[in-house]
Design a protein that fits this description.
The complex is a heterodimer of chains A (about 400) and B (about 325).
Chain A: E1 2-6, H1 8-19, E2 23-26, H2 34-44, E3 51-54, H3 58-70, E4 75-79, H4 81-96, E5 102-107, H5 121-124, E6 132-135, H6 139-154, E7 162-167, E8 176-180, H7 183-190, E9 207-208, H8 217-246, E10 253-256, E11 263-267, H9 271-284, E12 289-294, E13 296-298, H10 302-309, E14 314-319, H11 330-339, E15 347-352, H12 362-378
Parallel strand pairs in A: 2-3, 2-4, 4-5, 5-7, 6-7, 11-12, 11-14, 14-15
Antiparallel strand pairs in A: 1-8, 6-13, 10-12
Chain B: H1 9-13, H2 31-44, E1 60-64, H3 68-73, E2 85-87, H4 93-109, E3 120-126, H5 127-132, H6 135-144, E4 149-154, H7 189-194, E5 200-204, H8 213-223, E6 228-233, H9 237-240, H10 247-256, E7 263-266, E8 269-272, H11 283-286, H12 293-296, H13 299-319
Parallel strand pairs in B: 1-2, 1-3, 3-4, 4-6, 5-6
Antiparallel strand pairs in B: 5-7, 7-8
Helix pairs in contact in B: 2-8, 4-6
The chains are: A alpha/beta (about 400), B alpha/beta (about 325).
């Protein structure tokens, strides 16, 4: 084990160097551009023997990744924001074709207005495509998750593509202390990928991506759901194995001081670090607060959430993506659905925060928990404002 | 590049086909014929005196864009393809094949392929998937130079969705979105592709006046080091409105009237493959189908078409040094 100072993008590239995938299909987009850039340097220095396909668009990058995966190659793509939106059509096809492509996403807002900063609208927009979604809080977790991702996606019971999300700039460009494993440790952990089917298998010619009418289509889509269900156990077991070997455990959710929490915030991504600090401060004052970070958004950890939230009185659900016309963001909708039918439910408060990279500051986090404490006292939230740290219409810039 | 050896039709009859009958292409559709021709050539073409082995074809991997060919040949749980075939979406068969081809090169290098023989990759797309929505994907793949043959099955419109105009639809033609006749001239895609500077570009038609022309072109396409492109006219009985038995007649008329000349561009050098002894008037081609009904009664429009066809033919002759 070595300790290095790396950004999220650098940590992802370090893991990819150790894994040495067959194909990297790329198209540049901020804030994930560094990943193919740095990886290209490794190719130039012959430190990997990956072939990079430098495509003319995001749509072609995922299409090339799809083709390479059909050929039985281990394939990587990296993207963000508009890139995901442009890929959207093919994301469904890659999942429906059960191809374990690994895609690194430095999460970023969608236009309009144009914005390059952290936001989850990009991947949330394709949340039902059938891809696994694992979101990281820290640079270390990005590194660790890239290593786990191949094992999860390629598992014979899963065979689904995977998105590894991490906040644009906040994680992708922030330098952190990272414990880097030895090359052999990573290679052994990830193992070889031996696909069951390949379009290059001319001895057993098959047709991939056929046209299925109402008599067959639904069975294919049901199998995608089954793969997603199976993925729960695989994510847990791969995360535990990783923990046993390297000391850092991973699962579907990251519970922080949730055991006896009266109030809690649920969040995805790097903002949980700020919330955890705030929870520490509140705990010192004797307030029983906690943070629940959803690491696996697809598959959605409904059972884990029900268990963690069973005795919590009020919960703020923080979405870094909006779903206009609904009560909150996409995370809120899924949490409501996960908790539906529980005898005693916490009061759930939807919140939208951090769009376009606006940081949730410690003061905002403190106000949020104060709001939750008031909610507990009154049995309902003090106001119905969905957006956190936002200027209201007519206010001075 | 003139040493291509393709088995005779008689010999090919003894080989196991790579594309089977029983598909759902319309009666009179040229696509099945073209696909058989392309695959036969791709599997057996040899160069420089190498001997053809009908029992040991080249491994061929096919990519198909969404369109008539794809929906008619892969209705789950059936397939018409005897070779590995993939379909991704409408506009991205070139990009998808670029992934397959590069993965092949990696896996070949890493010793992960059972077959020692060199693979040949063919992508098929209609003119909608090539001239229009798939143009960017194709242009990108050709610029990157992946070694594969891209075949445009050009039936001059979006026929799978029910005969809508594309940028390959000719001037004056009826489609369901040009009921008054198309007012624009078709895009000269073959020339645009040639401008990419890829080693092999050709225009062909199925069993036209030179029946072996298409086979040999496919052979030369695989002799090329890099990307190859063929624009093949695919007469469409439903969309062009002609009797199902006239498919090859239409292809021949297109060639004889110089509406669809046969030529190829090898390493930048233009070659005319067929020069009609007596160039037929274009009206012979226009009147063999009903899609030009709207212009046939209009002498000015017919003259305009003849004029432009003549101009294009002259330009082509100059380019080919004829």
């Amino acid at each position: 084990m070595k300790v290095k100072a790396l950004t999220g993008n650098e940590a992802a590239v370090e893991a990819l160097r150790q894994i040495n995938p067959d194909i990297f299909a790329m198209f540049p987009i901020t804030p994930s551009t560094q990943i193919p850039e740095l990886f290209d340097e490794l190719i130039a220095q012959k430190k990997v023997d990956t072939v990079m396909i430098r495509t003319e668009s995001e749509h072609s990058a995922i299409s090339a990744a799809h083709g390479a995966a059909l050929a039985g190659a281990r394939v990587v793509d990296a993207t963000a924001s508009q890139g995901i939106a442009l890929k959207h059509e093919i994301l469904y096809i890659t999942a429906g074709s059960r191809l374990p492509v690994v895609m690194l996403v430095a999460n970023r807002a969608l236009s309009a207005p144009l914005n390059i900063h952290a936001d989850h609208s990009d991947t949330m927009g394709s949340r039902d495509a059938g891809w696994l979604h694992l979101y990281s809080e820290t640079v270390q977790e990005v590194y660790d998750t890239v290593i786990q991702a191949f094992r999860i996606a390629e598992h014979k019971n899963v065979l689904l593509p995977i998105i590894i999300g991490f906040d644009g700039f906040t994680v992708s460009h922030a330098v952190s202390r990272v414990e880097v494993l030895e090359d052999d440790e990573v290679k052994n952990f990830v193992g070889k990928y031996v696909p069951e089917h390949s379009v290059l298998d001319t001895e057993h010619p098959a047709t991939f991506g056929l046209f299925a009418l109402p008599d067959y289509y639904m069975e294919y889509r049901r199998q995608v759901r089954q793969g997603m269900c199976e993925a729960k156990n695989v994510i847990i077991s791969v995360g535990q194995e990783f923990g046993k070997k390297f000391g850092r455990n991973y699962g579907l959710v990251d519970n922080y001081k949730m055991e006896d929490a009266d109030v809690a915030a649920i969040v995805i991504g790097s903002t949980s670090a700020t919330l955890k600090d705030t929870v520490d401060e509140l705990r010192e004052k004797g307030i029983r607060a906690g943070v629940l970070r959803v690491r696996s958004f697809r598959p959605f950890p409904s059972a884990e959430l029900r268990q963690a939230l069973m005795y919590v009185k009020a919960v703020a659900v923080l979405d870094r993506a909006d779903s206009p016309g609904t009560p909150g963001g996409p995370l809120f909708a899924d949490i409501c659905s996960a908790l539906y039918g529980m005898h005693v439910q916490p009061v759930l408060v939807p919140n939208i925060y951090g769009l376009g990279g606006r940081e949730l500051m410690p003061d905002d986090a403190m106000s949020l928990f104060k709001m939750l404490l008031e909610t507990v006292k009154n049995g309902k939230p003090p106001n119905e404002e969905l957006f956190i740290a936002v200027r209201k219409k007519g206010s001075v810039l | 590049m003139n040493n291509v050896k393709i088995p005779t039709l008689k010999e090919l009859e003894t080989a196991e086909p790579a594309f089977y009958g029983g598909h759902r292409l319309c009666a009179g559709c040229a696509e099945g014929t073209i696909v058989r021709q392309v695959l036969d050539a791709a599997r057996y073409a040899e160069f420089d005196g190498a001997k053809t082995d009908l029992k040991d074809p080249y491994p061929v991997v096919v990519g198909v864009a969404t369109g008539c060919l794809e929906v008619a040949t892969t209705p789950c749980p059936y397939t018409s393809w005897g070779v590995p075939t993939l379909h991704n979406a409408f506009e991205n068969v070139a990009a998808t094949m670029s992934g397959v081809v590069e993965a092949y090169s990696v896996m070949r290098k890493k010793g992960r392929l059972a077959s020692k023989k060199e693979y040949r990759f063919v992508a098929f797309a209609g003119d909608g998937g090539t001239y229009d929505i798939g143009f960017q994907s194709l242009s990108g793949a050709l610029e990157r130079g992946h070694k594969f043959l891209y075949v445009c099955l050009n039936n001059e419109g979006y026929m799978n969705t029910g005969i809508q105009r594309s940028s390959a639809t000719p001037y004056g033609a009826w489609t369901t979105t040009t009921n008054a006749g198309k007012v624009e001239w078709r895009k000269n895609l073959t020339e645009i592709i040639a401008a990419h500077g890829i080693p092999y570009v050709a225009q062909a038609a199925p069993f036209s006046t030179k029946p072996r022309d298409l086979y040999e072109k496919v052979g030369r396409a695989f002799e090329a080091e890099g990307s190859a492109f063929m624009n093949i006219l695919s007469p469409c009985s439903r969309g062009w409105r002609f009797p199902e038995g006239d498919t090859i007649k239409l292809a021949r008329l297109a060639v004889e009237t110089c509406y669809w000349p046969l030529f190829e561009i090898i390493e930048g050098k233009w070659t005319l493959n067929y020069k009609p002894k007596a160039k037929m008037p274009v009206v012979e081609f226009l009147s063999a189908q009903e899609k030009f009904k709207g212009v046939l009664g209009d002498k000015e429009k017919v003259a305009y078409i003849q004029n432009r066809i003549d101009q294009e033919w002259q330009t082509l002759l100059t380019k080919c040094g004829v």
